[in-house]
Amino acid sequence: MDYREVSVDREFLLTLSYGADYHEEIESFAADRDVEAARDGGTGAVEDVELGIFDQDEFEYETVAFEEPLEVVACMGSVALDEAGTPVADAHVTLARPSGQAIAGRLERATVFSGECYLRTFAESLDRERDETTGRDGWAV
């Protein structure tokens, strides 16, 4: 295990815009407020969703599309800088269908119906890097 201690800097409560792209809302907010590293969580409802499930043999995400309204039961994510220094949102969600059936995965794409997001920023910037053993991106500590 590797680790790095970070200091909490700022905290924000966001109401996401109806019809917006989930990732674009978070990334635009982060860029406008110079957020280079953060943890986020959220609730709400989305539609036109694409989820990714990581294939541990192929080292890539397989995606599944859901063209239906879904409730955001839980959403946990982060913001970190990409190679170009641009904030990028990464989120993993559990979503519910009206039947109560849950589906989950990495949020690749979603249109916001309604949403709230809590964003806790860190004083230090964080970069993402690929772990050669697992093929997954994570915080560079």
From TrEMBL:
Coiled coil: none annotated. Gene3D superfamilies: Hypothetical protein, similar to alpha- acetolactate decarboxylase, domain 2. Residues 6-141 form the PPC domain. PROSITE patterns: PPC. Pfam families: PCC (PF03479). This is PPC domain-containing protein.
